[in-house]
């Protein structure tokens, strides 16, 4: 039993899935941090009072950067700049082993200066150290290019455990969110009104509240679908296992594989998060979660899909010539 | 040596998974177990104490990484009373307030992109029964910015109007009740 547990976490796989997660998370985070500059709110968010709302700079214990540089608007701006630069290098895979941990540090210090955040900040602080410890920089990165240029062989495989942990993290997020939704609006007693309600909230609705009244039944269906999706999250591991073991599961396993339940579940997740991104002004959350979704895809599946896309594109290029 | 490292890593991951599970016990447990049978609910209510004891030795490491929870109460409750932010200012003489920004108001969009940027929105958006600790400092910093940009204003007011979410996806209805009001005078920001 112990030997199997050790062997499971010692598995290796192609690095492409983790690399894709690295790039998508980096781009999403960079866009989020960039908005702070575009909207000119860096001091408002991270400077200490009275110049800003970054009360973490004057709290006890103070973040490390504040202990080193003192509490000031400049400190807040410097931490933000460090996060932007390290995030850009992380995304490009430049000196990945170093820059990924610098990004982890910068994100912790940003949260230290401004402790108010939402769940995506919490999630990224959990996920980034896992990515930093992974081989996500082994491919589609500056490091990989430089390695090739120096005539060194490419890293064919990297440890798989960081991807497994990302999958467990996402599944747990859904399970935790699902079983805590005890408000009536998420169930039949409240008429599955939760999503319709959110679309009427003046702080979050992207479109004029009430403009979707004609489509209200669809929002109810969306609420029901959200609950089913989140509460079935633990079953994802069973569906994956059944796909990996075509000889197991009997009729039930055969039905799950034939109906492609695992992929249906993933497509539902993508649709729900896309719907949130479209209908609500909550910023990074749906994009940050979707950036982690490639972790659900095993590297052979991702490489096969890329091969198919490449084939289609070459066919298109030939046809249009 | 290699086998030792593999074993150590596998047990490290097992520890992380167990701690993650414990850190995921819900903070809202009292509310969740309220309808449960009493003996079961009493047992569940002991969880937060055990949770604290189990996580305490690892808290410094988790704190260094900024990891505080694995509890994800996302959009737990929707509907009922929600809020609509008003940002107003007025000049010398204390005559009527000028509305600068109001959530979901296309006519009053001062600094709207910034105010609706999620890191700023998180600071001023009230949750069910509380608003963030950063809100008062944020309101003062926002007022300083307005005073700097517009010499004619002497006072800035930030407040939240309670609104009722209407059933059937029909939007919301204003209540005329205001809360979380902060008024900042120019003189206070120039001290």
Give structural notes.
The complex is a heterodimer of chains A (321) and B (191). Chain A has 321 residues and is mainly alpha-helical. Chain A has two domains: 15-150, no CATH class; 160-282, no CATH class. Helix content of chain A is 66%, strand content 1%. Chain A has 16 helices and two strands. Chain A has a two-stranded antiparallel ribbon with strand order 1-2. In chain A, α14 (261-279) packs antiparallel against α15 (284-292). The longest helix of chain A has 23 residues, at 16-38. The termini of chain A are far apart. With 191 residues, chain B is α+β, with helices and mostly antiparallel strands. Chain B has two domains: 2-64, no CATH class; 81-189, no CATH class. Chain B contains nine helices and four strands. Chain B has a four-stranded antiparallel β-sheet. In chain B, a hairpin with a 6-residue loop joins β3 and β4. The radius of gyration of chain B is 24 Å and the shape is elongated. Classes of the chains: A mainly alpha (321), B alpha+beta (191). The interface between A and B is large, with 82 and 69 residues.
């Amino acid at each position: 039993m112990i030997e199997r547990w050790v062997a499971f976490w010692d598995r290796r796989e192609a690095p492409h899935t983790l690399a894709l997660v690295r790039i998508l998370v980096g781009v999403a985070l960079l866009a989020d941090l960039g908005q702070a500059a575009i909207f000119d709110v860096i001091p408002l968010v991270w400077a200490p009072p009275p110049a800003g709302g970054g009360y973490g700079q004057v709290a006890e214990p103070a973040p490390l950067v504040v202990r080193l540089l003192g509490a000031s608007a400049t400190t807040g701006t410097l931490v933000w700049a460090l996060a932007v630069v390290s995030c850009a290098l992380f995304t490009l895979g430049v000196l990945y082993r170093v820059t990924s941990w610098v990004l982890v540090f910068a994100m912790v210090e940003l949260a230290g200066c401004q402790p108010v955040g939402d769940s995506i900040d919490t999630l990224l602080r959990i996920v980034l150290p896992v990515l930093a410890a992974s081989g996500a920089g082994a491919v589609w990165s500056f490091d990989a290019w430089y390695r090739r240029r120096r005539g060194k062989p490419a890293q064919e495989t990297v440890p798989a455990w960081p991807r497994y942990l990302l999958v467990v993290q996402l599944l747990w997020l859904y399970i935790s969110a699902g079983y805590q939704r005890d408000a009536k609006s998420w169930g039949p007693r409240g008429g599955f009104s939760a999503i319709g309600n959110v679309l009427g909230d003046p702080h979050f609705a992207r479109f004029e509240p009430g403009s979707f009244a004609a489509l209200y039944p669809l929002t109810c269906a969306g609420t029901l679908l959200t609950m089913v999706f989140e509460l079935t999250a633990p079953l994802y591991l069973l569906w994956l296992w059944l796909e990996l073991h075509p000889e197991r599961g009997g009729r039930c396993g055969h039905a799950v594989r034939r109906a492609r339940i695992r992929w249906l579940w993933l497509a539902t997740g993508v649709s729900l998060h896309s719907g949130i991104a479209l209908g609500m002004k909550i910023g990074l959350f749906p994009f940050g979660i979707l950036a982690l979704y490639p972790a659900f895809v095993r590297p052979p599946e991702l490489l096969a899909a890329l091969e198919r896309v490449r084939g289609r594109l070459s066919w298109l290029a030939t046809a249009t010539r | 040596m290699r086998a030792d490292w593999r074993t150590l890593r596998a047990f490290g991951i097992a520890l992380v998974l167990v701690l993650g599970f414990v850190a995921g016990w819900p903070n809202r447990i009292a509310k969740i177990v309220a309808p449960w049978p009493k003996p079961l609910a009493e047992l569940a209510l002991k969880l937060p104490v055990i949770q604290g004891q189990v996580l305490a030795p690892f808290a410094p490491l988790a704190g260094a990484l900024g990891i505080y929870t694995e509890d994800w109460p996302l959009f737990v409750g929707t509907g009922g009373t929600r809020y609509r932010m008003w940002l107003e200012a007025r000049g010398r003489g204390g005559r009527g307030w000028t509305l600068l920004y109001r959530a979901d108001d296309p006519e009053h969009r001062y600094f709207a992109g910034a105010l609706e940027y999620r890191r700023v929105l998180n600071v001023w958006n009230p949750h069910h029964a509380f608003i963030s600790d950063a809100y008062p400092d944020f309101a003062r910093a926002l007022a300083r910015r307005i005073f700097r940009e517009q010499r004619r204003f002497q006072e800035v007011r930030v407040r939240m109007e309670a609104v009722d979410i209407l059933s059937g996806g029909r939007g919301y209805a204003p209540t005329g009740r205001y809360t979380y009001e902060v008024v900042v005078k120019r003189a206070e920001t120039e001290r």
